[in-house]
């Protein structure tokens, strides 16, 4: 009976010590969870901002590609026109030299 009482006292003392430590640890963990939640919210806001900027950059790049294609087409038309004009001038020069 005395052994049972001693064992019970040791178990009760140990459980009280563990219980107190668990309560403070739980409060610390809750604080950590709140901090992590705040950090997560910050990351979400930053991600949304970055996503918006990336979408805008993609639209700008698409517009730039369209402008470059239009400029290339215009340059090709100008080169074709210059080549036609050069051929006409060559024919006119040859015609004038034949006279």
Summary of the model, kept short:
This protein is mostly helical.
Report on this structure.
The protein has about 100 residues and is mostly helical. It is built from one helix and no strands. The longest helix has about 100 residues, at about 1-99. The chain starts with a helix and ends with a helix.
Summarize the topology.
Layout: H1 2-98
Gross morphology: rod-shaped
Give the strand content. under 5%
* Unreliable sequence segments: none
Number of strands: 0
| Secondary structure tally, helices | 1
Helical residue percent band: over 70%
Order of helices and strands: H
Q: Compute the gyration radius: what is it?
A: 42 Å
Please supply descriptive tags for the structure shown above.
99 residues, rod-shaped, 0% strand
């Amino acid at each position: 009976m005395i052994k049972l009482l001693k064992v019970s006292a040791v178990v009760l003392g140990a459980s009280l010590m563990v219980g107190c430590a668990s309560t403070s640890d739980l409060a610390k963990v809750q604080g950590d969870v709140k901090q992590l939640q705040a950090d997560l919210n910050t990351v979400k806001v930053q991600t949304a901002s970055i996503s918006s900027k990336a979408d805008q950059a993609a639209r700008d790049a698409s517009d730039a590609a369209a402008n470059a294609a239009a400029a290339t087409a215009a340059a090709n038309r100008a080169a074709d026109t210059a080549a036609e004009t050069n051929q006409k001038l060559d024919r006119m020069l040859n015609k004038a030299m034949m006279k």
